[in-house]
Design a protein that fits this description.
Strand content: under 5%
Shape: globular
Largest sheet: none
Helix content: 55-70%
Structural class: mainly alpha
Distance between the termini: 25 Å
Number of strands: 0
Length: 407
């Protein structure tokens, strides 16, 4: 409580910090957790927490802290309206609306809480330490879970994908230490990154094992770290990655492995649905079976019956952007991708600018954001509030056009 008082200038702001910390903790560990509506496949409890936290933070915002007529506010409002209309015009209005509101609450909540609460160096130091603690706790529970049950996600999530997603995003904290801290801080950061990679290997997920290798290449491209250090990292990563794929069961590398054929087939199938419902989409997680009636399966190594079974079971494209395209329509996806492009362009531009004395290194934000975007190609990340919140929190930490690095 003393820490909260030091960060807040008013009781309302202190309340905002309490909600922010509690919600971030709940999304990191999914504890406590309540089932609000039995039978609905949506994390409504976390979504409500995100919405409540967003409301409290907006009410407690310092005067002048957020410009109400800024493009960011306008885009947020348009995205909210488009998602709400998508739910109302959905094939399943109640379920799709609940999921859409959860997506909105976690995305807008993470972004605007970062903009409102993390506006100075002292608060940024706090969120850095807090994120390091969250990541450390997650990794500890992953290792305990694997030692006890042979599954890294058993204590934290229903699936390893959302767990690995928030680990990748929380990498921004150890990367900040790695780029800014003293030798002890760099050692601690290296340990957290190494333990994270161990968890990725234990999870047997192919994508998250490849992503760190791609991040190393991206870091080498920007030359923020000396090339010989990047090389010392990439060579063992490459060896470990090759060995990982060599030891995978043959069925996971086969052409008829369900995650492989389903994700590949969903590029043409998602487009097939989207062009029939281009404005509002069909609603998030609305049934897709009826759209197979006039669709010809393109992937040559799977039968129509197998693909139909996968569509019934999964209900999404297992690709964030395709899922949003089908569920929320072209206008929503176009505006969201445009916003992402502007924020990322701003961040990339700042990577090679002269280093500031405080604030987060732009590369420490760029690498985990890139990791999340790559992961979103095989995972509906933004439909999970425990991933969407932390992803948009990073987007909210990107300085605006008129801000300094310290914001």
């Amino acid at each position: 409580m003393r820490v909260v008082k030091d960060l807040a200038s008013s009781p309302y702001e202190a309340l905002g910090w309490i909600f922010f910390c509690f919600t971030s903790f709940q999304l990191a560990f999914l504890q406590p957790y309540l089932v609000i509506i039995p039978g609905e496949r949506v994390n409504l409890f976390s979504g409500l927490l995100c919405a409540l936290t967003l409301g409290v933070c907006c009410l407690s915002a310092r005067k002048g802290g957020v410009t109400k007529k800024s493009p960011e506010v306008l885009i947020s409002l348009i995205l909210a309206v488009l998602m709400i209309l998508s739910g109302l015009f959905s094939l399943t209005p109640v379920s799709s609306s609940l999921r859409g509101l959860t997506v909105l609450a976690s995305g807008l909540g993470g972004f605007w809480c970062a903009r409102i609460l993390l506006a100075d160096a002292a608060r940024q130091r706090f969120i850095l330490r807090f994120s390091l603690l969250l990541l450390s706790g997650i990794l500890l529970l992953c290792l305990i879970s694997y030692a006890r049950w042979g599954e890294v996600a058993r204590l934290l999530d229903n699936s390893p994908h959302p767990l690995e997603g928030r680990i990748l995003i929380l990498w921004w904290a150890p990367l900040t230490l790695l780029l800014n801290a003293s030798i002890p801080g760099k050692v601690a950061a290296g340990l957290l990154l190494a333990l994270s990679y161990l968890v990725f290997l234990l999870s047997d997920l192919r994508a998250v094992v490849l992503i760190p290798l791609l991040l190393g290449l991206l870091a080498a491209y920007f030359r923020v770290v000396r090339f010989r250090y990047i090389l010392l990292l990439l060579i063992p990563l490459l060896v470990i990655t090759i060995n990982f794929f060599h030891r995978l069961p043959k069925e996971k590398l086969g052409r008829q492995f369900e995650p492989t054929y389903y994700r590949l087939e969903n590029y043409p199938f998602s487009w097939h649905i989207a062009v029939q419902h281009p404005v509002w989409g069909i609603g998030l997680r609305a049934p897709r079976e009826e759209f197979l009636k006039d669709y010809e399966v393109k992937y040559p190594y799977v039968t129509r019956e197998d693909f139909l079974g996968s569509v019934r079971h999964k209900g999404t494209s297992e690709n964030t952007f395709l899922t949003l395209l089908v569920g929320a329509g072209f206008p929503f996806v176009a505006l969201y991708l445009f916003s992402l492009f502007i924020l990322l362009a701003r961040l990339v531009h700042s990577v090679n600018l002269p280093k500031e004395t405080s604030g987060f290194p732009p590369l420490a934000l760029l690498l985990p954001i890139t990791a999340a975007l790559l992961h979103f190609l095989v995972f509906d990340g933004l439909l999970f509030p425990q991933v969407s919140w932390f992803f948009h929190l990073l987007l909210g930490l990107i300085p605006g056009p008129g801000d300094s690095q310290t914001r």
